[in-house]
């Protein structure tokens, strides 16, 4: 039974698996119940997490209960342990809201919470990140995670994020990043979707960000903290929470 279940997980395309698991996650979560790994977002524990990936599959990364990935769990820990996000009144703008966070943040009474995206059905405001319909200096917190790698003119998008953030406000702008690269790589001449997926991780990614990402954010005006938060967490908890060791959280201030 276990081998059949693993075979099913490994052969279903990852995007379809996420959609199916969102519907069937109570059953999947029950079948994987255990005590080896824990999702810190809801505190539930499992004998294994689910696999996830496009070109390269990662094992033990997708939570059966919240559908969180490594980056979501790391961000939740950072917000919960290092900020007043869950206690102080905040006006929050959340781009492309993730299923792992949407209901949790929506139900936080201290948050004046607005979601936005061009296509997501979870978006309160349908908007182009390069031309936002919001006034200057509006938001205490902006969450924009794994969005900028999809945007051809990421400079304009960063400028818009900076514009609508309040002075003193915080923006967390996570991206898939290759820290071994000094400079960001892009090549629009590659048009085959399979080839783009192989090179960029997903066919609809327009670049691979390198370490220069942080300096680009600084050039827009942000003060950037390159938060290596997994190095501040006990190693046994990094493993238990299925985090990606060494992942950097770009914490940006205006």
What descriptors fit this protein?
8 helices; transferase; disordered N terminus; two-stranded antiparallel ribbon; methyltransferase; 254 residues; 21% strand; Methyltransferase domain-containing protein; 7-stranded mixed sheet; alpha/beta; Rossmann fold; SAM-dependent_MTases_sf
Rg of Cα set: 18 Å
Q: What coarse outline follows from CA principal-axis ratios?
A: globular
CATH superfamily of the largest domain: Vaccinia Virus protein VP39
Q: What number of domains?
A: 2
The run of helices and strands is: HHEEEEHEHEEEHEHHEHE
What share of the residues does DSSP label as strand, in percent?
Answer: 15-25%
Q: List segments where confidence is low: pLDDT < 50 over at least 5 consecutive residues.
A: 1-12
Task: Enter the CATH topology name of the largest domain.
Answer: Rossmann fold
In total, the number of strands is 11
Quaternary state reads: single chain
GO molecular function: S-adenosylmethionine-dependent methyltransferase activity
Organism: Flavobacterium micromati
Keywords: Methyltransferase, Transferase
Protein name: Methyltransferase domain-containing protein
What does this molecule look like?
One of its GO terms (biological process) is methylation. The chain has helices spanning 2-11, 14-31, 70-82, 99-106, 154-164, 193-200, 213-220, 235-240, and strands at 33-38, 45-46, 50-52, 58-62, 90-95, 111-117, 125-126, 139-143, 165-172, 223-227, 249-253. With 254 residues, it is an alpha/beta fold. It has two domains: 2-67, no CATH class; 71-253, Vaccinia Virus protein VP39 (Rossmann fold), CATH 3.40.50. The chain has a seven-stranded mixed β-sheet. A two-stranded antiparallel sheet has the order 1-2. Strand 8, helix 5 and strand 9 form a beta-alpha-beta unit. It is globular, with a radius of gyration of 18 Å. It starts with a helix and ends with a strand.
């Amino acid at each position: 039974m276990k081998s059949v279940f693993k075979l099913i997980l490994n052969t279903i395309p990852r995007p379809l698996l996420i959609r199916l698991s969102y519907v069937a996650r109570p059953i999947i979560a029950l079948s994987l119940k255990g005590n080896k790994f824990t999702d810190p977002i809801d505190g539930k524990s499992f004998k294994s997490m689910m696999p996830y990936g496009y070109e390269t599959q990662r094992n033990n990364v997708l939570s059966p209960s919240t559908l969180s990935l490594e980056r979501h769990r790391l961000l939740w820990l950072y917000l919960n342990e290092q900020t007043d996000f869950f206690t102080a009144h905040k006006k929050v703008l959340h781009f492309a809201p993730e299923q792992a966070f949407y209901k949790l943040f929506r139900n936080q009474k201290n948050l004046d919470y607005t979601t936005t995206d061009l296509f997501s059905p979870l978006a309160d405001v349908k908007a182009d990140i390069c031309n936002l319909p919001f006034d200057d200096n509006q938001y205490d917190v902006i969450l924009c995670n794994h969005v900028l790698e999809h945007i051809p003119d990421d400079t304009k998008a960063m400028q818009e994020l900076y514009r609508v953030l309040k002075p003193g406000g915080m923006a967390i702008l996570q991206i898939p990043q290759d820290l071994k690269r000094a400079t960001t790589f892009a090549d629009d001449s590659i048009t085959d979707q399979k080839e783009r997926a192989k090179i960029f991780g997903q066919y609809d990614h327009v670049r691979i960000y390198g370490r220069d990402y942080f300096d680009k954010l600084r050039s827009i005006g942000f003060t950037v903290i390159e938060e290596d938060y997994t190095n501040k967490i006990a190693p046994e908890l990094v493993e238990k929470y299925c985090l990606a060791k060494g992942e950097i959280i770009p914490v940006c201030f205006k």
